[in-house]
Amino acid sequence: MAHNRSNTSGSTDVLQFVDCPLGIPQGTPAGYDTPEDCLADGRVTATDNIGPNFQNLDSRFGEETYLKSQQTLASLEMNYQLSDAFTLSSITGFYDAGNSYVGSFTANFLENGIPLTFLPAYADLEIREVTEEIRLTSDLDGPFNFLVGGLIQDSRGEAQALVSFNAYNPFPRSNYRYVQNGTAYSIFGQVSYEFLDSFELSAGARYSREEKSLPVFESALSSDFDNLLNIEAPREVDFDNVSPEVTLSYRPSRDLTIYGSYKEGFLSGGFNATNPNTTSSINARGNLESLIDPRYGQQEIAGFEGGVKASLLDGDLLANFAVFDYETTGLQVAVLVGVTQELRNAGEVRTRGAEFDFTYRTPLDGLSLNGALSYLDGEYTDYQSICYSGLPAPECQVQVNRFTGEAALLTDLSGTELVRAPDWTGTFGFNYETPEFSGMRFELLGNFFFTDSFFTDVISSPGGRQPAYQLFDAGVTLKDAGETWELSLLGRNLTDERYFTRSAGNPFSGSAPGGTGTVLADTVAVTSRGRQVWLRATYRFGN
Asked: Which of 109, 114, 462, 505 is the most exposed, having the fewest neighbouring CB atoms within 10 Å of its CB?
């Protein structure tokens, strides 16, 4: 069982401008000497002070951003040995989480800056899940073995949010509340069969069904901000899936395995718990009506993988090599629509590549090496994205989405690079422990990581590309021979590299897409930590 609780200023107060097409953040008053340099360098100018006026609209805003969260995770596993050959297992899980926050979702500085475009939001989220899994596993003496089981999950989630605008004279943008209930069932099984001494064939499948509903779906009109009204929209959704898997393995010796597999996977859809898009007036039934379908579809993946696992040089060298080719249909991506983030399905995606990793215990006593290299070719094979700000016609135009059948302002990214999919990534490291001297030992370690450039948003905006970068870590440890105590000096990211893996266009910046304007939006992101160096002392009682 685990429980944690935290109280921080939240992530929005460390938002950085990482790209400004005009050289300074758009909206900066003329003649104002901005503190922002628009580089991913760890220099944060965003403020956690949203001013005193928003709490006049609703007391939950306060004056400063914050994030308060707690979560509890518990599990209970029980195994009953029915006989020497059969084991019955029960795995029960419980998860409860909640957080509340106030964040400003424009990375704007306050001091004489641009508080007119402050966009603070208050949100509260509660999640509860209970799962139960039963499975029967065999351990037969013959070539045949199996596993069968089933799982059921009950879940409930509740979200409420208030969004306002303009730090001088706040006015409401949205107030909404969702409650989602969910039930999931699955049954699964797998069989394995060993034959011809060196071969093993395993095959299995999982049937899944998920049902989700929105018993509460409410929003308020800006003219009556405190009065939540029922929204008429699709309130139920369900998904069914059968995911098979088959693997053939060849083991000519205990030190070598060659395998090939075909796999399918599934991730259910659901409802977007974001700002509802509704009519601006109440209908005859006293309700609002949703202008869009709040549901998003399931994601499915299928493909092949094959590789080699080897233990060489009497076990001193362990090496793995794999190639893969997967196709994903209905990839679920989070996109920013105006100032609202939504989950949408992205048509079809293909990912293929190769991976290699090794660990080597060298002839020099105490020295080991490790490394990994990965090549990835990821692309959207059929994907019509929302347009980023400043993308003009005809690249951005109204068209029918081939996946959803709905018309929208879109751009076709089919055949282009997948988000967060660098071509090459790799690591190389070492660990060296000296022979004992005076009852003590030194341990030295180092690690190098590199990656090619990649897009950090799903709309492939130019400002969202992260350039290639490298990271270096190192450390030295002094410890007694019995490892009762240790004293370590550790360093991460020693070259002080700043990078980001997710980004978005800053709201209210850039030209409207699909027109004639070509001014791109400012790009904002939370960058990585820079250089970290710390001293760690460890003492183990009872050694």
From this structure: 462
Ramachandran quadrant class, 55 (left: phi over 0; alpha: psi -120 to 50; beta: rest): alpha
Nearest Cα to 303, choosing from 240, 352, 241?
352
- 506 neighbors 106 (Cβ within 8 angstroms): yes
Distance CA 180, CA 184 (A): 13
Is pLDDT of 117 > 70?
no
Handedness of CA 160, 165, 171, 173 (dihedral sign): negative
Distance between CA 502 and CA 281 in Å, rounded? 37
Q: Give the distance from CA 325 to its chain's centroid.
A: 22
Distance (Å, whole) CA 15 – CA 306: 41
Cα angle 285, 286, 289; round to 5: 85
Contact 112, 70 (CB under 8 A): no
* Diameter of the chain measured on Cα atoms: 88
Q: Report d(CA 111, CA 423) in Å as an integer.
A: 42
- Reduced DSSP (H G I as helix, E B as strand, rest coil) percent helix, strand, coil of the chain, to 5: 5, 60, 40
Terminal alpha carbon distance of the chain: 26
* Residues 190, 148: Cα–Cα separation, whole Å: 6
Where would I find the beta strands (DSSP E) of 23-143?
Answer: 66-81, 86-104, 120-138
Paired tokens of 87 = 């084991």
Helix (H, G, I), strand (E, B) or coil at 109: coil
What percentage of the chain reaches a pLDDT higher than 70? 97
Mean pLDDT, the chain, whole residue set: 91
Residue 60's Cβ-side half-sphere holds a number of Cα atoms within 13 Å equal to 18
Of the candidates 319, 324, 321, 279, the one whose C-alpha atom is nearest the C-alpha of residue 302 is 324
Please tell me the distance from the alpha carbon of residue 405 to that of residue 401, in angstroms, as a whole number. 5
Which candidate, 104, 102, 108, 116, places its Cα nearest to that of 44?
A: 108
Beta strands at 367-382 and 270-271: parallel, antiparallel or unpaired: unpaired
- Rounded Cα gap, residues 193 and 140, in angstroms: 11
**Rounded distance between C-alpha atoms, residue 475 and residue 414, angstroms:** 45
Q: Do 125 and 99 form a contact (C-beta atoms < 8 A)? A: yes
75: β partners:
93
Which of 195, 226, 199, 214 has the alpha carbon at shortest distance from 60? Answer: 226
66-101 confidence digits (pLDDT tens): 899 999 999 999 999 999 999 999 999 999 999 999
